[in-house]
Task: inverse folding
C-alpha cells in the first residue's frame, strides 16, 4: 500500500514533468483547485472516478489512484505555523477570532461555521496599487443542539 | 488613561443598553462591521472622527474615544484556540495551509497575502439545507523582495 | 452584565441551599442533565424560557437568566487535563482515537462525528462486581464535502 | 522479535488483500470490533488463542501472533490531537469534562470511571436528517480509597 | 461556600496555633497521615464524621467541615515539577517508569497499578550513614479488560 | 562501541530465547530485579563483574558487557508520560507531591529524598478482592546545607 | 526533483572546494550577501538567471539551479533559538520589542515594518576596543488598513 | 519602593499630559530615543543624573527617579511574540538567523554579536513607494575564548 | 502567617532603608552572602537563631523571623529563563552539560554533583581588560547506588 | 565534509582504543580539559594547530581535523534537561538565579557574566565525608551600555 507522502511526491514529479498547474489539473477532472490540491497533499480523499481521472491526466498508475482514495489522518507542523504565508493566516485567526465569533453569533445565533461541510476558493484581484489575494470560505452554519 | 479592556467593557455595556447590533453600530459610523468590531475588541484603532462618532452613537465619553484611538498591542489566548468556532478557523489553516500556499504561489509568485493591508467580510448565505457562513478575506499580495 | 463565572457561582450556591441535584434541576425545566449542567458551568447557553425556568426553580434573579442566555466563549485548563476523572476521558481519546476513526470511517465513509449537533447521556449501571458508568455520545455524522 | 509498527502494517496489508472489514475480522475471532481494532493498532494485547485465530483468518504467520500478545507501551501524537475526527472527541472532553465530573460524582460519590476496566461500542443510528454516530463507553466506577 | 484554598489556609493556621503535627492530627481522627494531609491540601475529601472530627480537634467551624467533604478538582503546577523534593519523585518515574512497567507486567500480566484504590505510607528509617525516607505505595492491580 | 539501544534489544531477544524472567535474571547475578532491569533498559550501569555475569547467563558477547558498564545519559519521553501504567505514577506525584513534602519535612527537616542513593522494590500482595502492587522506595534523606 | 536540504549541501561543498566566501559568491552574481546566503540556505528563491549564474560560478548542474528557484516553505528550530549568536538576536527582540513598537508608531502611525519587502545588510565596524557588528534592517512600513 | 510597572504607568501618563514624544523626551536628557524608551518600559536603567533629568522634564517625583535607577529583571511575553510588529522581528530572526550567523562568522570568526554592549537606532526613510523603517543594530563582536 | 513574598518585600525595604549590602547583611549574621540572599529571596530557610539575628540587624519583627524559618516550596519562572544574566547561566548548562557530565564521570565514576549538599561563592576578579565574575560551585559527589 | 556528530563518534572510538582520559587528551595538546571536551562534543571549535595536534594524538585523519575547526551551531535537548547530573545544574540556576543576579549587580553594577569570554574548571576535592565536585566558572563582566 502506497502511503500519502509517496503519493504526493509522485504527483508533484508528474505535475512538473507535464508542466501543468494545479488549476489545469483540477479543471481536467472537473473539481475545484483548492480541493484537488488538498487531496494531492494528502489532506482529503477523492472518489474512485476522480482518483483514476487524475492519474490518467498525469500518467500515474493505480497505486497512486488507490492512495488518493484513502481517508487521510490529517496533521500539520506544530501549534503555531512558521512559514510567513501560513503564519499570516494564523495571525488573522488570532486577531479577528473574537470578532468573527461575535458577528457569526449576531447573524446566526450560537453555533459554528463547519470546517467539514466547507468549500474554499482563492482568486486574484488585479489592482493597480498591487494585486490582491481574495480567499472565500463557505461553511455550513451548525447551531449548537440543546437537549 | 483608559486601557483597552475597560474600553471594551464600556462599549459592550452601552451596546446592550442601546439594543444595537455590531452591524448597526458599524453602519452608524460608516465603517465595516468586521473592522468596527475588531476596534471595539481592542484589536485595531480608529481615527479620531470615527472614535468620537462611535462614542456619540453609544453615549460614551471621551475617555473611551481616546482609548479607541490608541494603537493596540495585539495578543490572543495560547497557541491553539479552544472555543469551537475559533478552533475550526485554526483547523482550516492547518488543513489547507499548504494548499493555499501552493495556489497563491501559482497565481502570484513567491510572496504572501498581507494581514495588514487586509479586509474581511462575513455574510449569511441562505440555503434550504442549512444557511452558510461566507467569509471573504482580501489581502494585498506582497512579493518577496530580492536584493 | 453578569459574567459566566459569577453566574455559575450563584447557581451552585442556590443549588446547595435548595438541596437539589443536577438531575432534579434538569427535570424541573424539561432538559437533560448533561446539557443543563453544561449551561450552568458556562459551556452552553439556554433559550430565554429555559433560562427563566431555571432561575425560577432556584429563586435567582434576571441577571442570572440573562447570563444563561449569553453565547459562551468555551475554554478549559491547559492541553492535557489533570483531574483524574477528566484525565481518564482524555486517555480514552488517546488510546482509542485511531480505532474510533477506523471504525467510523468503515461504517460511514470519510467524515467526522459532530461535537455541535451532539448529545450526551450518563447512566449508572448496577453491577455486583462494582457499579459501572455508562456514557453515551450521539453526534451527527458529517461527511467531508468534495467540491 | 516483531515490533508493533510492523505488526500493524502486516495486518493492514492482509486485511486489504482479504477485503475484510474490522467488524468481520472481529466477528471471526469472537471479539468486539473496538477491542480488536485497538489490538491491531498496537494499543492492547490479545490472549494467545485470539492472536492465533486472527492470524489464521488473515493468513499471517506466528511472528505476528506473538507481537499481538506483547503488552504495549501506549503513546499517541502530542497533547492536543490534530485530525478533525479525533480532535472533536478531545473537544468533547474539554467542553463537557467538568459536567461529566459533576454528574458522575452526583450518581456515584467521589471517584472516577476506569479507562482500564472499560469497554466501548460504536454504532450507526440511521436518521433521515443525517445518520448519527453513537459511541457508548462503559467503565467501572472506582471510588477513591480513604485510609 | 468555602473553597479549598481558604480551607487549607484556615487549617494551616489552626495547626500552627495548636502546635500539632500532621501525624498527631491524623491520629486524633483515626486516619493515616498521608490521606489526612492530602485532604487538608484539597486533594481528597473526608466523610462527614472525619471532617467534623478534624474541625473539632483544630477548633474550626462547620464551613471548613463542609469544604473538607467537597469532592476536589485535582490540579498541580505545570507538567514538570520544580521543587527539588517533588522533582526527585518525578525523576524516579522518568528513570524507572519502563522498569516498573516491565516488572509489574511480569508479575501480574497486562494492566496497571491503580492510583485511586491506592494507599501510601511514609516512614523514617534510622541509619548511621544518614537516615532514609521509606515511601510505600500500595495500589490495586487493574487488568486490562478484553471484550 | 555498542550503544544502549542496541544493548537493550540484544538483551530482550536473548531473554525471550532463554525464557527467563527479569527476576530470574537478577537472581542469577545476585542483584535486585529493579536495578537489573533498569540497567538492561539503559538507565543505570553495572560493575564489570555483574556485566559479564549477566552476559554469561544470557549467552551474550563482550560488546554487550561493555555497553552495560557505560554510564548512561538518562532521558525519557516528554514531560507528561502517556502509557497508563507510567502516567498513574506521575499522577501520584502530582496529587501527593505537596503531601509527601509536608510529611518528609515534618519527620526530617528541610531537605529531600535522594533519587541517587535510592533503592526500589516491587512486590505482589495477594488479596481476594484483587491482588495489589506494592512499591517501596527507599532514599537517603539529604538535608539542605546552610553555609 | 532536488530538495532544499540537498541543494544546500551541494552548494556548501562546492563553496569550500572553490574556496569562496559568501561575499564573493554574492558579488559574482550581482546580489547582496545576505539575500544570496539566505537563498543558498533554502530560505528564499532566486530568479532563473541568478540561479544559473550561481551554479556557473560554483560548477553545479541544473538540478541545483532548479532547486534555487523553488519557492521555499520556511521553518526554523523550535520557538526559542539555542545557538548563542541567534539567541542574542531573539533576546534583542524580547528586550526591545515594545520599545521598537512605540518608536515606529510614533514616527509612522499604527502599522508594522514588513519582513517581506525587506532588506538586510551586515557590516564590520573596526574599533580599537573591539570590532563591532552592524546590522541594518530596512523594511517597508505597512499601515493597518481601516475599512 | 516603586516597582517598574508603576514607574512606567506614571511616565506614560505624564508624557501624554506634557504632549511629548519619546524622541523629544530623549533629547531633553541627552540620551538616544531607543535607550530612553527601553528604560521607561523597565528594560534598562538610568544613571542617577539621567533619572532625575527625566523626572524633571516630566514633573515626576523622586520615587520614579529611584525606580528608573533600579537594575531591571528583564522578561517578555511567552516564547513566540503575538503582536504583528514584534512578530515580524521574530520572523526575521527565524528566517535569517543562520544567514546572519554564516556572514558574521565569515567576517569575524567564531563568536557572537553582543546584546549587552549594544546600541540600536530606528529611522524613517522617506520613499515615494511607501516610507521605510530602518533599524540599525550595533553590537560588539565577542570572540569565543579558547582556554 | 506571613508568606515568603511578603517576607522578601519587607527585607528588601529594610535593607534599602539601612543602606546595607547583601554582603554586609550576611557578615552581620555570620553566614555566606549567597546562602543569606537565597534565604531572603525565599529559596532556602534559616535556623531560628540566624532568622532572629537577621531581623535584629534589619529591625524587623518576629513574623519575618518565622517566615525565614519556613521550609520553602521552590519555584522559578518557566523552563527557559529570560533575564540575560540568568539566561547566560542556563546557556552554560546547555552548552557545557555533556562536557561536565563526561569530566565528572571520569574523575568520580557514575553519579552526580549534589544541588542540596552544595555551596556557592561569587567573587570579583579584577582584570585590566575588564573585571571578571568568578562563580565557584561545590557539591558533594553522590554515586549511584547499585542494589 | 564531515559533520560534528560523526567527528564526535570517531574521537570517542579512538579515545577508547587509546585508553586515554579527557584530561590526558587535553594535556597532550596544551588546552584545558573542559574546553577540549566541549570541542570534541561539537560545542566549540579549535584553531588549526590544536585540531591537528588532537588528531595526531588520537591517530585520526584530516577530515576530523577539519571538522574540529568548523564553527558549531550549538543546540541541546529540549528546555529542561532530564539527565540527573545535568538537571541538578539547571536546578541550581533556577534556585539561585535571582541570588546570583543580586550579588553580581551588587559587586559590579548592571550587566551580566559573559558566557562567551568564559572559562570553566572542574576539580575533585577529597573529603572524608564524601568527595566533592568543585566547578569554577570565570566570565568577563559585561556592563549594559547606555547610549
Result:
Amino acid at each position: 500500500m502506497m502511503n500519502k507522502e509517496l503519493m504526493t511526491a509522485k504527483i508533484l514529479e508528474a505535475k512538473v514533468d507535464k508542466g501543468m498547474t494545479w488549476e489545469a489539473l483540477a479543471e481536467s477532472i472537473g473539481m475545484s483547485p483548492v480541493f484537488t490540491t488538498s487531496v494531492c497533499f494528502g489532506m482529503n480523499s477523492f472518489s474512485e472516478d476522480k482518483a483514476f481521472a487524475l492519474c490518467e491526466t498525469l500518467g500515474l498508475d493505480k497505486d497512486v489512484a488507490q492512495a488518493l482514495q484513502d481517508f487521510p489522518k490529517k496533521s500539520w507542523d506544530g501549534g503555531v505555523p512558521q512559514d510567513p504565508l501560513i503564519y499570516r493566516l494564523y495571525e488573522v485567526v488570532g486577531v479577528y477570532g473574537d470578532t468573527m465569533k461575535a458577528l457569526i453569533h449576531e447573524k446566526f445565533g450560537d453555533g459554528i461555521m463547519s470546517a467539514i461541510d466547507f468549500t474554499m476558493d482563492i482568486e486574484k484581484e488585479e489592482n493597480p496599487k498591487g494585486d490582491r489575494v481574495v480567499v472565500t470560505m463557505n461553511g455550513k452554519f451548525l447551531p449548537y443542539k440543546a437537549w
About this structure: Chain E has two domains: 4-69, 84-143. Chain E has a mean pLDDT of 96.
